[in-house]
User: What shape does this take?
Amino acid sequence: MNREDMEMFAANWIANWNARDLDAILAHFVEDARFISPLAAELTGSPIIEGKTSLRAYWSKALEASSELHFTLIAAVCDIERQVLGVHYVARRNGKARRALETMRFVDNLQVEGESFYSAQETSSGD
Assistant: This one.
């Protein structure tokens, strides 16, 4: 992926989450993808999710628990040589907002690894 591909991917990723389109979100993962998130531990008991089927189960639960969900892209940080994309965004969920960064590593244009990082809850309603 080049920089333009990565920036387009980031914009589409945000749009897919905002549309709650789990099929589109999962379409770019390899079957044995690995994903790490502190929020996963809250819903699954483990911060590490392995495999597309497990990702679907985790994100289905997360979406069910989210009456409100909206992401706003701040920036896409691209490491072309390593095929790593960092998507920096504001995540609004159930009336609370916080900044987040999700790193994604690609092989042959498919995501093989991902990890999410979250800030403290924001106290204001602005970005």
